[in-house]
Q: What sequence folds into this?
């Protein structure tokens, strides 16, 4: 049978169908993009990680050690613990990422990652625990895909030398990512009360 | 075997329209996703750079008469201009729970800072304030 060509109606129907499909597709795509936009703006990884590390350093804290003397129960020592080198920092912070307790924090550059671990230094009843990490202390990956990473430090310009020699004011995390040299800068903060109590006890554990 | 009929002009045109729509859709999708990715990267790098610089400036000595700092960070050229907004001499109190009460007189300076970040043809500006404390009557 010899089939004739498409009639005008057929062509018009085809065009309507095609334009409907296109419009629906574009609308669905736009909705999907909006959805991605909304979700991603809530979970930007890098700024969130940056803020978490910033808060850790901003809340650098002393810990109070009770002297083991039954007859002089008021004897306390306010101790700042801050061990640092190019690859690793260990200190006490009042704003750890995963718990609400004052914790011992460790940030370590390992392979192409920045690893993080924390261990509370007080029990839930505020009893003092030794500031140490245990074998089962969990380690988290906080930044990845970073190369040539290292920490560097700057001392405070407006603090007594006794403190600034031991605790840096500025901590810099330098690393290479996507062939761009990045520097993340964090600062430690002390309030006047901490400083005064610290100066009273005048002891720093290295 | 039955010979196949050749396609007519209308069929070809419809096929062209469908193909054209597909190409337009794909191109616009890729373009939008790329724009979105760039926007996200720009936000991330601006966020971390501005907060890093703010932390750094808090440890710099400021001139009460005003001034500026320039340099490079995270692929940006930056310029930060600051000026004194207000300064007061007052007593600073410790935390309310502290036994020690006030910790003595301080001269406190409030600086208004404007930070410009420039990279290739992009430019962004941020504003923030920095407080500086100077102990009165004590030399370091």
A:
């Amino acid at each position: 049978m010899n089939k004739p060509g498409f009639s005008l109606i057929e062509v018009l129907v085809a065009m309507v169908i095609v334009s409907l499909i296109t419009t629906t597709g574009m609308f669905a795509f736009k909705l999907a993009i909006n959805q991605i936009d909304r979700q991603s703006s809530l979970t930007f990884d890098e700024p969130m990680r940056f803020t978490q590390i910033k808060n850790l350093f901003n809340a650098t804290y002393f810990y109070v050690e009770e002297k083991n003397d039954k007859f002089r129960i008021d004897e306390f020592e306010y101790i700042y613990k801050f061990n640092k080198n190019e690859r690793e920092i260990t200190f006490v912070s009042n704003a750890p990422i995963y718990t609400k307790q004052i914790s011992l924090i460790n940030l370590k550059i390992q392979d192409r990652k920045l690893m993080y671990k924390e261990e509370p230094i007080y029990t839930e009843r505020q009893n003092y625990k030794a500031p140490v990490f245990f074998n089962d202390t969990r380690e988290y990956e906080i930044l990845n895909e970073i190369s040539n990473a290292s920490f560097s430090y700057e001392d405070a310009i407006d603090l007594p030398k006794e403190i600034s020699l031991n605790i840096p004011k500025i901590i810099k995390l330098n690393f290479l990512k996507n062939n761009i040299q990045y520097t993340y800068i964090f600062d430690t903060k002390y309030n006047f009360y901490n400083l005064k109590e610290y100066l009273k006890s005048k002891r720093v554990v290295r | 075997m039955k010979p196949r009929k050749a396609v007519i002009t209308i069929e070809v045109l419809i096929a062209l329209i469908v193909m054209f729509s597909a190409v337009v859709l794909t191109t616009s999708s890729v373009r939008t996703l790329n724009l979105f990715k760039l926007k996200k990267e720009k936000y991330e790098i601006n966020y971390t750079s501005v907060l890093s610089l703010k932390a750094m400036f808090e440890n710099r000595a400021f001139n009460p008469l005003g001034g500026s700092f320039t340099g490079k960070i995270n692929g940006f050229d930056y310029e930060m201009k600051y000026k004194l907004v207000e300064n007061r001499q007052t007593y600073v109190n410790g935390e309310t729970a502290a036994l020690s009460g006030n910790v003595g007189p301080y001269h406190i300076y409030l600086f208004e800072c404007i930070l410009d970040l420039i990279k290739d043809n992009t430019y962004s500006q941020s504003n923030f304030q920095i407080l500086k404390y100077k102990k009165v009557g004590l030399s370091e």
Observations:
- The beta strands of chain B are 67-73, 76-93, 102-119, 122-135.
- The first helix of chain B runs from residue 9 to 57.
- The longest strand of chain B covers residues 76-93.
- Chain B touches chain A through 42 residues (CB under 8 Å).
